[in-house]
Amino acid sequence: MPPPTPTNLIICCCHSIYLSTSPNTPPDPAPGTSPFPGTSRTSWLLTPFQHQEHHTFTTHIHTSLTLLSHDPLSLLVFSGGFTDSRVKTSEAASYLALCEDSGFWSIDSRSGHEDEGGEGKGKGSKERILLEEKAMDSLQNLLFGLLGFWRRTGGWPEKISVVSMGFKRGRVLGCHIPALKFPLSRVEFIGINPSYMDPSSPDYDEERMKSVLEGEKTRGFDAWKADMYGTGDVLRGKRISRDYFKTRGVWFESEEERERSGVRSEVRVFGDGVEEVLVEGRQPWEDS
Q1: Tens-digit pLDDT profile for the chain (288 aa)?
Q2: What is each CA distance from 155 to 8, 59, 239, in whole angstroms?
Q3: What are phi and psi of 233, to 5 degrees?
Q4: Is the dihedral of CA 95, 4, 140, 188 positive or negative?
């Protein structure tokens, strides 16, 4: 009997690249790394401002897998592109690699529980995980996640669960969801912040937390509120700066696919290339 068609979408917004044991992985400069995959900072390509945040990224992944295990009608999308010139690996593919290196933490998406004996090893999980490898910002995480769901199922999700940094709640629910015109009542935001933002944690760093929140307000929420589709020089410039391998700026393989999807978009020519953007009009997921 074929599995039921998924109706719910889980989007795990990727923030970095985990270094698995692939041929493209640079050598780990630190001796004696942790035996648990993903727990060592040298297992990740972290930017200076992401110090120790890899623990949070791992929690995002584990939380997303747990959501998947509890809902047999869901699909999980790891969303994140090729954002680091040092490796030809996408953020999304690296998150899946960590799942595989960790045996999916023995979370079995078919039984809906963790297998205490470790024998489940994520049975059934991988079949309901999609990789979205083009996203260069948080709006594209959501949009391309939607497109991945449509390509797999032929329809649009009834519900979206977004797993990301807690401090990005405002931009996701206040900017991206309105821009996409996806019904807010059908969106669940699961925000998990780094431990340095938790006053009850021994890692709590008030000064760093304030800096992050201020940066999110000015360079995140305020920037997106002023440019909801991200087509202006500032937000588009950020995407370009992250796109080291020059992935295609269009979303669909053909005009026929675009028309079949019903998505209201157009390809625009900019001075430094082409990029597809949303345009005004009713989007197909509004009616799902």
Answers
A1: 788 999 999 999 999 999 975 444 444 444 333 446 778 888 999 999 999 899 999 999 999 999 999 999 999 999 999 999 999 999 999 999 999 998 888 886 443 334 333 444 444 568 899 999 999 999 999 999 999 999 999 999 999 999 999 999 999 999 999 999 999 999 999 999 999 999 999 999 999 999 999 999 999 999 999 999 999 999 999 999 998 888 778 999 999 999 999 999 999 988 778 899 999 899 999 987
A2: 11, 29, 28
A3: -60, -40
A4: negative
CA 100 to mean position of chain CA atoms? 17
Task: Kindly state the tokens that stand for 161.
Answer: 């669960």
Which tokens is 52 given? 């120790």
- Between CA 273 and CA 20 the distance in angstroms is 33
Backbone φ/ψ region at 200: left (φ over 0), alpha (ψ -120 to 50), beta: alpha
Sign (positive or negative) of CA dihedral 106, 111, 113, 115: negative
Distance, in Å, from the CA atom of 141 to the CA atom of 12, rounded to the nearest integer, reads 8
Listed residue (34, 36, 54) closest to 44, CA to CA: 54
Given a contact cutoff of 8 angstroms between Cβ atoms, the answer to whether 108 and 120 are in contact is yes
Chain position carrying tokens 């045996």: 103
Residue for token pair 């945040």:
53
Radius of gyration of the chain (CA): 19
Cβ atoms of 8 and 75 within 8 Å: the answer is yes
- State the virtual CA torsion across 57, 63, 69, 72 in degrees, nearest 10: -90
Do 80 and 15 meet the contact criterion of CB atoms below 8 Å apart?
yes
CA–chain centroid gap for 146, Å, is 11
pTM of the complete model: 0.89
Q: Which residues pair with 265 in a beta bridge?
A: 278
- β-bridge partners, 89: none
